[in-house]
């Protein structure tokens, strides 16, 4: 039997893993559940991803693009005359008001790095990437602090089902940014 050429299979497996985690959480992820979701033979998952951690790394890397992309594409964040705390608070609010399942999925994969060391470098890449985008408007240390504050505000909103408070976020972010930035 000839092997079918399927150049998109690896991507379909990553997308399937993201859907499985979105529905069942990381505990529901297995090579078998991903193969079933992607409608491919089980061997395809282990061919492309030897371990579940390899698959989770790919899924986390793809999921991490969400917030970083929103930050990168927001034109006012790079405007030196724009109110940086206000713009960051607005961006965060827009992101949290979007697809909540997608936001929760990003955080579930991100926080999985606590128990899965293979994911830690990818989680760090996300923080460093967003920090690098913000460092253009501040300095590296402040940018890193902003990422931590943004993370904290997001987690509080997600974990407590408290509505996002843009005014609060703006005030807290303004306290982190040194005057004149």
As a whole number of angstroms, the C-alpha radius of gyration is 19 Å
Number of helices: 10
Q: Helix proportion of residues, in percent? A: 55-70%
Order of helices and strands: HHHHHHHHHH
* pLDDT < 50 runs, ≥5 residues: none
Q: What proportion of the residues form beta strands (DSSP E)?
A: under 5%
Distance between the termini: 65 Å
Which class of secondary structure composition applies to the elements? mainly alpha
Q: Can you give the mean pLDDT?
A: 88
Number of strands: 0
Counting copies of identical and different chains, the oligomeric state is: single chain
Keywords:
10 helices; single chain; 181 residues
Structure description:
Helices cover 70% and strands 0% of the residues. By secondary structure, the chain is an all-alpha fold. The longest helix is centred in the C-terminal third of the chain and has 21 residues, at 140-160. It has helices spanning 9-24, 31-38, 42-48, 52-63, 65-73, 84-97, 100-111, 120-135, 140-160, 166-176. The chain has ten helices and no strands.
Task: Detail the topology: elements first, then pairings.
Layout lengths: L8 H16 L6 H8 L3 H7 L3 H12 L1 H9 L10 H14 L2 H12 L8 H16 L4 H21 L5 H11 L5
Helix pairs in contact: 1-2, 1-4, 2-3, 4-7, 5-8, 6-10, 8-9, 9-10
